[in-house]
Specification:
305 residues, alpha+beta, Ribosomal Protein S5, domain 2, Alpha-Beta Plaits, 2 domains, 8 helices
């Protein structure tokens, strides 16, 4: 006899950083072909999904709930309705979302929530779709969502994010996140980048050339770290450059912008001499500071009822 299905599940929707990000081409459909190295962080939103008889709801709370937008535009809600339509769900669901990941910062907060909701609803389903079908749904929600729906902590991704080479996560390190007072719209960042590419016909894209059979180490990652969006965002927001340089001065490697911005992150060295980082060393920077850690695993879905 099979165990009864859970009525409610909970999981942590982990943030990500892009340790490299190249925009390869723009399709006629408007989608962009990417190459990016994803790594999850311990920083996470908390997501709880409950089966209901018919009603459907989303409740957002937390210190970083500002900027999540109206319900119908929220990626977690869109993921839930997409899943419901795909499986022909006749019942309802209640989603509780506690935001801890800054919005509009390039840390994949909305995408992580969407991926978590897809995983949660599949865990609650009597006939789960499984990984491949969940990935197919995730593609339509954004380039970060396939990775953040997966059970991988680190991967090199191409295309719209759906093609992934799973890599062993590098040694866990502390990470400083510098969160400016402004967000960057993804559409704006792509528009700025398109203009920059038109002005520079000789822009070269470097292949990552990571070996899937070897452990990633931080010196190799730092040597290949790049973000195609960073120069065009820095040109419009010089404070991004100031934040990158401040983290570099602290010995962080890499120190760079994540995604399309605006959050800048720095990976602290492992030798321990930065463990007791003084708040004075970051005082005066035009950003909020969050300290977290890189993740070696993806948090599982946990039944709670």
């Amino acid at each position: 006899m099979s165990a009864p299905r859970a009525e409610c599940v909970e999981l942590r929707a982990q943030a990500k950083v892009n340790l490299r990000l190249e925009v390869l081409a723009r399709e006629t459909s408007g989608f962009h072909q990417l190459e990016t190295l994803f790594l999850r962080l311990e920083l996470a939103d908390r997501v709880r999904v409950r089966r209901t008889s018919s009603s459907r709801s989303l409740d957002v709370s937390g210190v970083d709930r500002a900027g999540t937008g109206p319900v119908e535009r929220n990626l977690a809600w869109r993921a839930a309705t997409l899943y419901a339509d795909e499986v022909g769900l006749t019942g309802g669901f209640s989603i509780e979302l506690e935001k801890r990941i800054p919005t509009g910062g390039g840390l994949g907060g909305g995408s992580a929530d969407a991926g978590a909701v897809l995983r949660a609803l599949d865990a609650l389903s009597a006939r789960p779709l499984g990984t491949m079908q969940l990935t197919s749904l995730a593609i339509s929600l954004g380039a970060d969502v396939p990775f953040l729906t997966s059970e991988h902590a680190c991967a090199l991704a191409w295309g719209r994010g759906e093609r992934m080479l799973v890599l062993r996560a590098p040694e866990a390190r502390d990470v400083l996140l510098l969160v400016p007072s402004f967000a960057i719209g993804t559409a704006d960042a792509y528009e700025w980048l398109a203009g920059a590419v038109e002005d520079d016909d000789h822009r070269r894209v470097r292949s990552a050339l990571f070996d899937a059979e070897r452990d990633l180490d931080w010196p190799r990652i730092a040597a290949r770290a790049t973000n195609a969006f960073e120069p065009v965002v820095r040109a419009r927001h010089p404070e991004i450059g100031e934040l990158v340089e401040a983290l570099g001065a602290l010995g962080c490697g890499p120190a760079m912008m994540s995604g399309s911005g605006s959050v800048v992150f720095g990976v602290l060295p492992a030798d321990g001499d930065r463990a007791a980082l003084s708040p004075d060393e970051l005082a005066g920077l035009p950003a909020r500071v969050i300290r977290t850690r890189t993740a070696a695993r993806v948090e599982p879905v946990s039944p709670i009822e």
